[in-house]
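Tip: read the tokens left to right.
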């Protein structure tokens, strides 16, 4: 059994910084994780990579050879990755199976995890390779300035959760940059009634039915819970990591094997 985080979220939400801080934190703990970069446009990052999509295809080459723009080129690159799941990726994953922990740093193009199928098929491939996978959705905490932006972020996260069909952890990133933490704290685990009341104050009266439907959707999928993370604090990183580990049952399989082994010895 292998374990994996699929780190997703809008461009600029701090995904690569999160991966780098997570790697440093685990290194300090003596815990081994392996980071995979799936962004064909990324050239520089602050963590060691064990797999890199640019070894397969790069955005620069696609744009130059096919005359595509950045968005179309990135979609083409991810489609090419999808076509090579059983070759390039499968061969790379063969080195990381039993009890290994992979972190996939994904591109920030929102359609990749909202409605096009490439990342979903990627996740299915990981599952067939016996990986437990958790989606880690990062949202910039500075984006949560009012209820309208909060609901927008929730709906984007909900879209990713439904599309990928994964255990899901929502993280508010860049908490160290927030000037008014009290404003953000109001949205960490809010009551639906509070959200609806705030939304009705911001939006014209004829949208009340739509507001009610949106809040019901958010509440039904239990998507109104975010974990704030301050990457300058080890305790903050450890808390988020513990929540993710719990989603993918990291460590529980090893405990069960130890338990079975002890029972065999007793027998």
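Filled-in amino acids:
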């Amino acid at each position: 059994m292998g374990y994996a985080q699929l780190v997703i979220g809008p461009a600029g939400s701090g995904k690569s910084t999160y991966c780098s801080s997570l790697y440093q934190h685990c290194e300090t703990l003596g815990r081994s994780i392996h980071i995979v970069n799936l962004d064909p446009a990324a050239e520089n990052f602050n963590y060691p990579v064990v797999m890199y999509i640019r070894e397969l295809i790069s955005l620069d080459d696609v744009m130059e050879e096919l005359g595509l723009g950045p968005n179309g080129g990135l979609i083409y690159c991810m489609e090419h990755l999808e076509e090579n799941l059983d070759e390039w990726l499968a061969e790379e994953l063969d080195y990381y199976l039993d009890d290994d922990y992979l972190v996939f740093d994904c591109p920030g193009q929102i359609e990749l995890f909202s409605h096009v199928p490439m990342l979903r098929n990627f996740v299915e491939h990981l599952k067939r390779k016996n990986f437990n996978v958790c989606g880690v959705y990062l949202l910039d905490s500075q984006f949560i300035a009012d209820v309208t932006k909060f609901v927008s972020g929730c709906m984007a996260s909900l879209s990713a959760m439904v599309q990928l069909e994964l255990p899901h952890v929502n993280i508010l990133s860049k908490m160290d940059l927030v000037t008014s933490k009290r404003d953000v704290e109001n949205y960490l685990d809010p009551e639906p009634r509070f959200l609806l009341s705030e939304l009705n104050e911001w939006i014209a009266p004829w949208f009340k039915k739509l507001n009610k439907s949106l809040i019901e959707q958010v509440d039904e999928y239990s998507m109104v819970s975010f974990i704030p993370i301050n990457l300058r604090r080890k305790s903050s990183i450890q808390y988020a990591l513990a929540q993710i580990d719990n989603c993918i049952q990291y460590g529980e399989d090893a405990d069960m094997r130890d338990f079975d082994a002890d029972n065999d010895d007793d027998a």
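Strands lie at 2-8, 34-37, 49-52, 101-105, 131-140, 168-173, 227-228. The chain has a mean pLDDT of 87.
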